[in-house]
Amino acid sequence: MEPSYLKYITLSLNLALSISAVTSLPNSPKTKTSLKTCNFPAIFNFGDSNSDTGGLSAAFGQAPYPNGETFFHSPAGRFSDGRLIIDFIAQGLGLPYLSPYLDSVGPISLDVQFVQYSDFRRRSSVFRKRGGVYEKLLPMDYYFSKALYTFDIGQNDLTSGFKQNMTFDQVKAYIPDVLRQFSNVIKNVYAQGGRSFWVHNTGPLGCLPYTLDRFPIMAAQIDDHGCATPFNDVARFFNSRLKAAVVQLRKDLPLAAMTYVDIFSVKHSLITQAKKLGFENPLLACCGHGGKYNYDKNRKCGSKVTVNGKEIMVAKSCKVPAVRINWDGVHYTEAANKWVYDQIINGSYSDPPIPMEMACRVMDH
User: Fold this and answer.
1) 74 among known catalytic residues
2) SS3 state of residue 73
3) pTM score, two decimals?
4) Which residue among 12, 18, 28, 49 is the active-site one?
5) Are 362 and 197 in contact (CB under 8 A)?
């Protein structure tokens, strides 16, 4: 029987397809082609809400305004004021912004996401043969073998345990099971022809307003930057095991190009050097309501109350999201996402240290 905690792993399958029917989305310029670059025709993303471009909104209702206010100027399925890291990745590769798989049912386990991916691949092949609009809208078969497969996992996997009042040791104890599921999905995608994998580790959980507000933390557990050390330690533990899993996958899947990206270090640097980098109040949610961290789990970003028969928004956006790092207590602002993207795109935080546009290259280790 599946361990009970696994049903809380909230990951959503998204996809971006560089095909003529959807290339008119805003600000998705094509990159210049080069013999040295991979020219990915598509991105398939397996990730949690940090890279969710509409799966949760499709299942439970649109993320309310002011989500989306900065770039899209209205809610766009993303838990941010604008674009996510995955959006900048797609744009940088000359692909349209990602859309969620249409049959998504919201928060689901990674293995179920793979079933959705497989089903989408099968349907695409069947419906393209019918010609007409299907041929224009759906990906060609070779897209699936030439695509970039991105994985952004860990944050929800870990916090789900803490929400069940697990100890740090208990959360660490189930990490091997989470990573076995991750490895199995990679192997299954590989078996279906996928070859290029871009894997983000998880960020500093102990620096999220959500974590700092919701869980009991003693003063001695707070570091010099205001972050909760035990939660960051668990994130580092997860990341060390994730990296080991990637190393093993390289051995098991010799034709795969596996890139491990140290998102933790990038985000930690952003938070701890916020002022130097032009940001303010790194531990304060931009969009929220009340409390030390402007976060209230019962009044999340966009929440309203009714006063004298009139709805009034109480969890509003801050005045200048462009100088803030945390958006809603859990997710990052567009400005922060763009900064993180700018640091990782050239391979400085990657193993192997290659730029994303060359992530199809199998490197010697």
Assistant:
1) no
2) coil
3) 0.86
4) 49
5) no
